[in-house]
Amino acid sequence: MNALIAFWNILLKDMKTYYLKPPNISWGIIFPISWTLMFFVRSGSAIDIRGILPGVMALSILFGTTSMLSVTITFERRSRSFERLLLAPISLNLLMLAKTTGAILFGIINAFIPVLYALFLTDLAGINWGATLLGVIFIAVTSTFLGLFIAVSVSEAFEAQTFSNFFRFPMMFLCGLFIPIGNLPAAIRPLSYIMPLTYGADIIKHAINRAGIITPGLSFLVLLAYSIGLFWISTFNIKRKWIY
């Protein structure tokens, strides 16, 4: 019971301190609009809102979770509050889950803001909303743990952003978000299948447009493996740097 109370208090503190601030809320509103306008300018005509929706949702999660978590934990490390949290009488795994749950929720909310816009612009009938929600959750968890890995691997906030972009920008262009993987050069196509966002976006494509190319069950397993691996590496780094 004490562990659950500690979990809730850490989560509530992070939500109030970081995620519910007006600039962060506006980020989730403006980001999808910006991407939709970019495709409109590029095409110069009407765009396939439903076709680009999975990509916009995936990017909203990726940028929202990694940006927030990598900066907040880096900031807390600099102010020494992160070290004080490590002294809390709860397990390290539960502490890190408390620190990451806020980012996961932030990413899930960000994902469905583009859906609200799309409701006014196109017909969303026939979408498998259950599979869409599961895909969004898995992307949010994997992206959040990627942000955790970045945050505990650097010392300063600007390093966190630079390191984040090392992962995010290749994912934007190689994960089939807007350009089908089959249209990529054969030499770089294998890189697409190394990146976790490829599998998350494919789940949402299956659910929204029946356009996925990977078996959903395999995509879920790959994302689960990435999540476990990133979380384990992150906690190992924390133990190595601050506990042992």
Structure description:
By secondary structure, the protein is an all-alpha fold. It has one domain (2-243). Helices cover 78% and strands 0% of the residues. It contains ten helices and no strands. It has helices spanning 2-19, 22-43, 49-78, 81-86, 92-119, 129-151, 157-174, 189-192, 196-209, 216-243. The radius of gyration is 18 Å and the shape is globular. The chain starts with a helix and ends with a helix. 37% of the residues are buried.
Architecture blueprint of SSEs:
Blueprint: H1 2-19, H2 22-43, H3 49-78, H4 81-86, H5 92-119, H6 129-151, H7 157-174, H8 189-192, H9 196-209, H10 216-243
Please give a handful of descriptors for the protein shown.
244 residues, mainly alpha, 10 helices, globular
Summary?
The chain is mainly α and about 240 residues long.
Outline:
globular
Helices and strands, in N-to-C order? HHHHHHHHHH
What's the helix count? 10
Structural class: mainly alpha
Portion in strands: under 5%
CA(first)-CA(last) distance: 27 Å
Low-pLDDT runs: none
Gyration radius, rounded: 18 Å
Percent in helix: over 70%
The counted number of beta strands is 0
Mind describing the biggest β-sheet?
A: none
The average pLDDT is 83
Structurally, how many domains make up the residues?
Answer: 1
